Amino acid sequence: MRKLLIPAAVVLLCAIPAFAGDETGNWKRPNGDIVEVKVVNNGLFCKITKGKKVGFEMCHGMKTTAPNVWKGKGMKHPSMPGFMTFNGTVTINQSKLEIKGCVAGDGVCDKEVWSKVN
Prior knowledge:
Layout: H1 8-15, E1 25-28, E2 34-40, E3 43-50, E4 57-66, E5 69-75, E6 86-93, E7 96-103, E8 108-116
Antiparallel strand pairs: 1-2, 1-8, 2-3, 3-4, 4-5, 5-6, 6-7, 7-8
């Protein structure tokens, strides 16, 4: 009987949590803004780097809840007053990013679909 040996590297890779696929990089909003999306300390951050509100942070430390899905309560929208925050969800699917913000639980929501630029 032959024993199947699995290399340690394969075992370690399987033990790493499955974070969203290709979320990092620059994404284009429907209005033309470019948003840099990055993961820092297992949190998702989205900051406008080109457009009308450069430096505005839309997502701040959202946490992954499933492969390719991030959620958080501190999402902001650049056209809303700064004190308003939303329950947010970011879902990545290939070269598309869907960002959705809700108030009143999940009663009132709006979403955008962004396209990857690099």
